[in-house]
Amino acid sequence: MKRYKITALIFSIFLFVFFIYGNAPALAQTSNSAKAIKIIKAKGCLSCHALNGSGGSVGPNLSNEGSKGHSIHWLKVQITNPGKHFQGSIMPQFQLNSAQLEEVALYLESLK
Ligand code: HEC
Asked: How far is 75 from 78, CA to CA, in rounded Å?
């Protein structure tokens, strides 16, 4: 009986740890949207793209970018090397560091 209780306790601790870790990326994603928007503004994306009601119309509206079925990887390639997806693209190649790139791609993917 005692052994059963200890096993149950250890199992609950494992469940708890998995629960916390499992939710960590989701939490990071939502709390970083302000950061992502800051980067997007600083890089001048809005001179061509509309986002949440403001910005240009040279490129597609990004307000629902996450519903287009593009992967995080696709979004990163689009930002750093748009010519890979759209030959002769007028979108410039952007040099973001990997943390910024991750931030912006996760944010765009979350826009559904
Ligand atoms: C000079 C105008 C211009 C700027 C600045 C620009 N883009 Fe673009 N973007 C485009 C155009 C035009 C397209 C359409 C596809 C293509 O030609 O690459 C596009 C496509 C995209 C797409 C794919 C949209 C889709 O669903 O097909 C994403 C995502 C994107 N841009 C993100 C960004 C981000 C993030 C920035 C800033 C780091 C940025 N763009 C800056 C013009 C621009």
From this structure: 5
Ligand 1 centroid to residue 12 C-alpha, Å: 47
State whether the beta carbon of 78 lies less than 6 angstroms from ligand 1. yes
- In the reported structure, the alpha carbon of residue 49 is separated from the centroid of ligand 1 by a whole-number distance in angstroms of 7
The pLDDT tens digits for 5-38 are: 767 766 665 555 455 555 555 544 454 799 999 9
Pairwise CA distance, residues 37 & 85, whole Å: 23
pLDDT in tens, 28-65: 445 479 999 999 999 999 999 999 999 999 999 999 99
Residue nearest to atom 41 of ligand 1 (CA): 45
Minimum CA distance residue for ligand 1 atom 5: 45
Tokens of 35: 């950061």
Assigned token pair, 76: 């990163």
What angle is formed at CA 23 by the lines to CA 77 and CA 62, rounded to 5 degrees?
35
